[in-house]
Request: fold
Amino acid sequence: MTPRLTGMAMMVGASLCFSGMGVSYRVAMEEGLPTAFVPFARGVFTLLLLLPWLLRHGVSGVVTRKPRLLLARCAVGLFTFQTLMWALLLLPLADAVAITQSRPLWAIPLAALFLSERVRRDRVLAALVGFAGVMVIAQPTGDLNWGILMALLAAIGGATVLILLKALSGSEPPMRIIIWYAVVSVLFWGPISALVWITPSWWQLGLLLLGSGLAVAGDWLVSNAARRTEASLLSPMEYVQIPAGAFLGFVIFAEHPHWGLPLGVALMLAATVYLARSAGR
Reply:
């Protein structure tokens, strides 16, 4: 298998890991855990899971030449993760996952803003078609829907994280990126979690540990995929989360997708595939 195909396969695996992570964390929050406790627990469990790697590599394993870029990735990651958790609580699982998967469409203006890429007319048209798909899924009624807003913010944050990971992939190993994010999560969410502390049950701890393990696996796969494959080819692979989210939502939460979901996903997928083909040309 070529490095490009390996990276695309890794992105599919990461997407499935993140689907399982979202379900684990949503069940934990529905069981009564505060939303702030989830990212804190994720950071703690991530450091515990990676403790053998830390002991083997020592300080040299986490020293970086790009601290500002890593901190930017951590800050955007904290924002993205929290908005995703709120979206999962406020929306049906399939809708939340589908809207957050509009990340490739937001990457166009972000790439123009941060990477000084030229904005082409055909890509703007593709982005508008994809955004129409988001609107079909969201089915806005004119009232402010906080769940949809959180999902859109998570999508924009996710696109920014992918651009930052691509910028870091040339010099920073995946484990270093993951550990930095875990440490910043603990330092940021620790004091907040102390203020809203609820002692979790063994069942809730198991859910948090499962979600954290899947998150670590997903982060590792994404970081390695970014080292092998262009971002324009990685983004379409994430759409596997949409049918996975619909299936898990039906099986675990008894949620039935509405008629707009397949139509909206089709528009988003068509726009993203066109962008990938355009990038290949």
Summary: The radius of gyration is 18 Å.
